């Protein structure tokens, strides 16, 4: 199987949209990765990545397991330092900025977060306010307003005094999203926020993120596994394989049969849903 996949990826008939051909965005760029390479210890993962995150849009990263999606997110969020290249946040090198300054501009929700046993919902959401506090400036009315707003938009206000571990998976995920929103940043990065959730709950979470992004003017970068969910919600779609970006741009330009075959080794038809205005992939059952 591995050899078949290797042969498939090197099939000359597979044509992928070159990065140079992607349409130039007309929106300001809030987060930019330029020629970054990164990894863990001596193990390289990312290879000379260039990525622009358009302001006010939802950028979704997709690709096979181990392709570097989470590594890219962590590098852009300043958790990992690139061995080459740079990441700029609003025009400044993110790895040269103070931690608090970065946290006041960019929130990160990591994959599979775990809350301490017995921690209540309001206490968790309140942790999103830490970047705004100092020794001289403790909890203020602004902090309370931000926490109340975050719980309201994520529809968890009724759980405020309940322990996190007493909630369902979907409810817990909304609590973590509320914590990220309480941070009050224009840019929010989320690593697989729908993993292990039922399809209906995945849709609920993505509807919540999309609605919040549009109404509150947030820029979001999201790592997802479900291809049709990604196609349904992405403004800007990024396809990765083996530590490289294979294609990026408008979802209707990028979500193609050729790119799905090149990136995932997936033989599927891509049809256009006229009602949704989005592409959908249908796997070839005879493949």
Automatic annotation (TrEMBL):
Q: Where in the cell is it found?
A: Cell membrane
- CDD domains annotated for this entry? ABC_Iron-Siderophores_B12_Hemin (cd03214)
ABC transporter domain segment(s): 31-267
Cross-referenced InterPro entries: AAA+_ATPase, ABC_transporter-like_ATP-bd, P-loop_NTPase, Siderophore_ABC-ATPase
Q: Which UniProt keywords apply?
A: ATP-binding, Cell membrane, Ion transport, Iron, Iron transport, Membrane, Nucleotide-binding, Transport
Mention one GO biological process in which this protein takes part, according to its record.
iron ion transport
Q: Give a yes or no for keyword Lipid metabolism in this entry.
A: no
Q: Name one GO molecular function term.
A: ATP hydrolysis activity
Q: Where are the transmembrane segments?
A: none
| Superkingdom as given in the UniProt entry | Bacteria
Protein's membrane topology: Peripheral membrane protein
One of the record's GO cellular component terms: plasma membrane
Q: Which family does it belong to?
A: Belongs to the ABC transporter superfamily.
Give the protein's recorded name: Iron complex transport system ATP-binding protein
Species annotation: Maritalea mobilis
């Amino acid at each position: 199987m591995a050899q078949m996949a290797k042969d498939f990826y090197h099939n000359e008939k597979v044509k992928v949209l070159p990065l140079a051909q992607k349409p130039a965005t007309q929106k300001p760029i809030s987060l930019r990765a330029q020629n970054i390479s990164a990894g863990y210890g001596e193990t390289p993962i990312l290879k000379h990545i260039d990525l622009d995150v358009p302001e006010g849009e939802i950028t979704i990263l997709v690709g096979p397991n181990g392709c570097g999606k989470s590594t890219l997110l962590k590098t852009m969020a300043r958790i990992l330092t690139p061995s080459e290249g740079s990441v700029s946040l609003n025009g400044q090198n993110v790895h040269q900025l103070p931690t608090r300054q970065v946290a006041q501009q960019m929130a990160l929700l990591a994959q599979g977060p775990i809350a301490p046993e017995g921690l209540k919902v309001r206490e968790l959401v309140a942790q999103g306010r830490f970047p705004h506090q100092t020794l001289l400036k403790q909890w203020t009315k602004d902090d309370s307003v931000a926490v109340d707003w975050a719980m309201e938009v994520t529809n968890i206000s009724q759980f405020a005094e309940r322990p996190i571990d007493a909630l369902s998976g979907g409810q817990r995920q909304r609590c973590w999203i509320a914590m990220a929103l309480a941070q009050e940043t224009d840019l929010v990065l989320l690593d697989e926020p729908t993993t292990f959730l039922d399809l209906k709950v995945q849709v609920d979470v993505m509807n919540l993120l999309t609605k919040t992004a549009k109404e509150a003017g947030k820029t979001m970068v999201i790592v997802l596994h479900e291809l049709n969910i990604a196609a349904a919600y992405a403004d800007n779609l990024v396809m990765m394989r083996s530590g490289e970006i294979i294609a990026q741009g408008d979802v209707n330009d990028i979500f193609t049969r050729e790119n799905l075959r090149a990136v995932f080794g997936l033989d599927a038809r891509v049809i256009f849903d006229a009602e949704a205005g989005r592409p959908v992939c249908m796997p070839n059952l005879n493949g």
